[in-house]
Amino acid sequence: MTGGADFAKLRRTSAAADAVRAIQEMIVDGRLVPGQRLPPERELSELLGISRPTLRETIRSLVSMNILESRHGAGTFVASLDTAALLEPLQFVMALNERTIDELFEARLVLEPALAALAAERAGPEQVAALRAALDDADPLVADVRLHALLAETAGNALLAAMLQTLATLGRSSRARTAQRPGVLDHTAADHAAIVAAVAAGDPAAARAAMASHLTRIARAARLSNTVHISGDAP
Asked: Which InterPro entries match (predicted)?
């Protein structure tokens, strides 16, 4: 199924780059949707006004970004556009650049204390119960991700929650390494309990302070973990 997508011919300034942008725009505005099959190569190259080799380059680029996926014998399709998959190429950048860890936590320190404060203002009994249940998850990494996501959900701001999901995805490998450092999991559990207690008490200031303290502590551990990881020393 190719749907009713309106493929417009492109100017020849930088055809492959233009084609990438054109297909991205068609996805953003809903003319192409996840799971939709693109027209066959010959037809699509004619619709876009580019050569077939240029189209192949375009598709390779979009596949590498996890925007399209090629299925052998079936064609090229719009991928799921899952946030984690779209951000996956950036994980390599995060691993290479020690500075990005500092920037990641700087962003989290701007965002998450505010989310915790909003959660304290808006949490009802069901949300508090869910937060307390997340503290008891047997897998500490799962508990960590789940708790922060629940706090964002409880804050009641979908845009801020989406921003947090992006940051969480970018920090996934760093989180796993940091958790291996001695004492980190115990401190994290205590920090999380303090955050949930503040939210349950309806105390935005305490929730904000508890989250800021938690992130500051984890940022220090993450910097140490990242330095060890890049230098090649044993954790």
From this structure: GntR_C, TF_FadR/GntR_C, Tscrpt_reg_HTH_GntR, WH-like_DNA-bd_sf, WH_DNA-bd_sf
Backbone phi and psi for residue 76, each to the nearest 5 degrees, phi listed first: -110, 135
Bridge-partner residues for 75, per DSSP? 71
Distance between alpha carbon 127 and the CA centroid of its chain, in Å?
23
Q: Which residues pair with 70 in a beta bridge?
A: 76
Bridge partners (DSSP) listed for residue 68: 78
DSSP-assigned beta bridge partners for residue 69? 77
The pTM is what?
A: 0.63
Q: What is the mean pLDDT of each run of 10 residues along the chain (235 residues)?
A: 62 76 92 94 92 93 91 92 72 61 88 96 96 90 91 92 82 79 90 97 97 93 62 34
State residue 191's pLDDT score.
96
At 231 the pLDDT is 36
Q: What domains are defined for the chain?
A: 15-81 (1.10.10.10), 87-231 (1.20.120.530)
User: CA–CA separation, 66 vs 157, rounded Å?
Assistant: 27
